[in-house]
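Need the bound structure for iron/sulfur cluster, inputs here:
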Amino acid sequence: MQVERNIQERTPKKLLTPASGYLKGYSHTLNPYVGCAFGCSYCYVRRMPVALFRKEEWGTWVDIKRSAKESFKRELKNAKRKDPLTIFMSSSTDPYQPIEHREKITQALLETMAEEPPDFLFVQTRSPLVTRDIELFRALGKRVLISMTVETDRDDIRKAFSLAAPPIPARLKAMDTMKNAGLAVQAAVSPVLPSTEDFAKTLADHVSRVVVDDFFMGDGTGGKRTKQLGIHKLFKELDVEEWYNDKAYMKVVEDLEAYFPPDKLFISQEGFLPG
Ligand code: SF4
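Answer from helper R.:
Posting the output first, comments after.
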């Protein structure tokens, strides 16, 4: 697990941000933190202003967004007055990164949302810590979908691309736990990384809904941001270059088709829309 060397606190006036671009199907995004200690090598946020303006390397710093419960509650109430409130948490950080164990910022936001529920909440994470908040998700009922990133079934590949992120078996187990608790859960093969022949079956054993996305469809720039990160080099070093192209995701999709019906198998943006 990576240790953040630089932790700061912020007290933003607002926590909800109007959604745009890839997430324009939502009314708002919600990021409990700025920065992310998982520090994935392929993270497109590395190429966004929030990261480019910092001197420190992505993955080594985290800003905690502190807010008063009443002010967030008011924000939720006001947002709900206008249009349906649909929230994507989180678009540029992981709401369950290591610091959440201690700070419980995401948990506090969920507690407030349980009292003043949005119309829909999408939770995107790669951390089994999400299971800590099962009771809060249950309070939100059908308004919440939890999406667990599972880019591959090969933990050696996970380590090569995303060393500080939780191991794949722990994520699969977390999906079981949430499914057994009656929550709506999906696996997000995002981005597609090299996997084994058994990947589709493994996912089907743990979850009934899946989305597949890759660097070319899902980084918001047709793969340009990912190219700037030099990820291709890593594919080459690992001798898995055949997985770095805009058709590689099709192999995964074809395998998944044997296990998931069309209405449970999504490609790119459609799998991240409010449901
Ligand atoms: S978990 Fe998400 S936000 Fe964090 S570094 Fe990885 S890709 Fe980026």
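Comments: The mean pLDDT is 95. The pocket of iron/sulfur cluster is lined by residues 36, 38-40, 43, 45, 93-94, 126 (CB under 6 Å).
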